[in-house]
Design brief:
single chain, 22% strand, 3-stranded antiparallel sheet, alpha/beta, 9-stranded mixed sheet, 2 domains, globular, Rossmann fold, 7 helices
């Protein structure tokens, strides 16, 4: 108050301080609410962002081993990896075939197991298969006749198709959506799978046994086929391909297997990832090709660093039918 032109500051201070205290308390309360909301959003974001077939959502059940065929007196087995506590009744299937020059390798290779685990965590049923190693302790190089190589390709492709048929025949037991089957392989395994998908009419006289099997996508690590001319609109399955441009065993484009010379017994021409994807492009089919400039056959190894891109493409293109043609040069 003003007394005779003089302010009474003590009274003024008493009247203002309570107002300031209330305002500070209200501001603090608002800030606390905003902070609490922010913490909740940050906590909830990972759960909201998780997407089946792209993100790791599940734990993985202990794999189940089954015999899918008996050939030449040997049981051919496969391991089935499934997401734990999954209630979905129709799940996409991935079948993978290991490499090893048709002479070695196993379905329990560390990289193959990690891939199957990664797929099952995302909601797939993932299968790793064994097959006849018809060149075990024998050469598969330039000294082995071309006709023998063709027979080797054929037998391995047949084993792969039998494994796929086994899973389709047991679709109810393993809750599989047979319209969403992704197949893949590494090196020799990739050759067998790609030949079964794209060169079936070239390699087999009768494929009626497998006519109820449809593939929605292929995943090839340094693979090749015998003849890309047999890729047609009918069998032009979308694919993901990884390949070194200077692969010394399996040609990146079109070239001789193991780079044999024309006079060698094992001289046979193959069409690799680049030639396959060129044909898919002409047929307006989706593909993703990762080419590694100067890379050799080491790119038959599992591309763990690129799994986010691989599984995203699987989901968008193989499962949901989006159209994408992607080439990446590394």
């Amino acid at each position: 108050m003003l007394w005779g032109g003089i302010w009474n500051f003590s009274e003024l201070r008493v009247s203002i301080q309570p107002k300031i205290g209330i305002l500070n308390f209200l501001n603090l309360l608002t800030l606390m609410r905003q902070f609490t909301l922010l913490l909740f959003l940050l906590w909830a974001l990972p759960f909201q962002a998780q997407e089946r077939y792209v993100d790791d959502i599940f734990e993985v059940e202990k794999p189940i081993t089954r015999t899918y065929a008996n050939k030449d007196g040997k049981n051919l087995k496969l391991d089935i990896y499934q997401p734990e506590t999954d209630t979905l009744q129709a799940r996409p299937l991935i079948i993978f075939m290991h490499g090893g020059g048709f002479s070695g390798g196993t379905r329990t290779n560390e990289a193959e197991v990690k891939f199957a685990d990664a797929a099952a965590k995302k909601g797939y049923v993932a299968v790793q298969i064994s097959y006849r190693l018809t060149r075990k302790d024998q050469s598969f190089g330039c000294d082995y006749e071309a006709s023998g190589k063709m027979q080797t390709f054929k037998l391995a492709s047949e084993d792969f198709l039998d494994a796929a048929k086994f899973m389709v025949d047991h679709k109810e037991e393993f809750r599989i959506d047979t319209s969403k089957i992704i197949v893949g392989g590494s090196s020799a395994g990739a050759e067998a799978v790609l030949i079964a998908v794209y060169n079936d009419k070239l390699m087999f006289d009768d494929i009626s046994t497998y006519e109820n099997i449809d593939f929605s996508g292929v995943f090839s690590l340094a693979g090749a086929i015998v003849d890309a001319r047999y890729i047609t609109q009918e069998n032009a399955v979308p694919g993901v391909f990884f390949h070194g441009t200077e692969d010394n065993l399996v040609p990146y484009g079109t070239g001789p297997h193991h780079w044999c010379k024309p006079g060698d017994p094992g001289y046979i021409m193959l069409d690799g990832s680049k030639t396959i994807t060129e044909k898919l492009r002409k047929l307006n089919t989706s593909f993703m090709l990762y080419s590694f400039e100067g890379g050799k056959h080491e790119h038959s190894g599992m591309p763990f660093d690129y799994f986010p891109q691989v599984f995203s493409y699987f989901n968008q293109v193989f499962l949901n039918g989006e159209k994408k043609q992607i080439e990446v040069l590394k």
